[in-house]
UniProtKB/TrEMBL annotation:
GO molecular function: DNA-binding transcription factor activity
Chain coiled-coil ranges: 22-61
Species per Swiss-Prot/TrEMBL record: Vitis vinifera
Protein name: Agamous-like MADS-box protein AGL11
Alphabetical UniProt keywords: Coiled coil
GO cellular component labels: nucleus
């Protein structure tokens, strides 16, 4: 009996069925298809909901990462020598204002700046920028 039912559902051995039995088989198939479509629809909606949540998470992560990149770039720019400062250093170097061994950290006739200055907040400055700042203070004095 079960084998015949499966064959009927597959569309085989239908010749022996009456019109009433064919109609019942058709109704069973339509109900089955309706349940299958309903389940498929439910799964698709769940997948769409998951993907929408994931999209929001990725957008938030993207905003966070862009903010971090901007912050890092801002910090890098703050630590870089500006064009004006670089030109000032180049001008001093071209006039031999700095002795070569002074730039390289060798001994000079000039007293070295107090190392306490470096520990009070200037540790992030590049050596060129630090020299430029010292030069400006010497020029202004």
């Amino acid at each position: 009996m079960l084998q015949n039912s499966n064959r009927h559902l597959m569309g085989d051995s239908l010749a022996s069925l009456t019109v009433k039995e064919l109609k019942q088989l058709e109704n069973r198939l339509e109900r089955g298809i309706t349940r299958i479509r309903s389940k498929k629809h439910e799964l698709l909606l769940a997948e769409i909901e998951y993907l929408q949540k994931r999209e929001i998470e990725l957008e938030n992560e993207s905003v966070y990462l862009r903010t971090k990149i901007a912050e890092v770039e801002r910090l890098q720019q703050a630590n870089m020598v500006s064009t004006h400062e670089f030109n000032a250093i180049q001008a001093l170097v071209s006039r031999n204002f700095f002795q070569p061994n002074m730039i390289e950290g060798g001994s000079t006739g000039y007293p070295l700046p107090d190392k306490k200055v470096l520990h009070l907040g200037y540790t992030h400055l590049s050596p060129c920028l630090f020299i430029c700042i010292l030069s400006r203070s010497n020029i202004e004095d």
